[in-house]
Design a protein that fits this description.
Layout: H1 6-26, H2 30-47, H3 50-53
Helix pairs in contact: 1-2
Length: 54
């Protein structure tokens, strides 16, 4: 996969949002964590990654 293709860019954004969700969860800032998890789910669906969507 080419590094600058839209799917690769989406995957990078997905990882960042998901990891930020983990950080906020560990800080017990649950609402902020949920927001980042939801954003990562939107990106997951947009790039068509059914494995991570599950």
């Amino acid at each position: 996969m080419e590094l600058n293709c839209p799917k690769a860019q989406g995957y990078r954004k997905l990882k960042i949002k998901y990891r930020l969700g983990i950080v906020y969860f560990n800080l017990k800032q649950y609402q902020q964590a949920i927001e980042f998890y939801q954003q990562s789910l939107v990106i997951t669906r947009k790039i068509g990654d059914r494995f991570r969507e599950a």
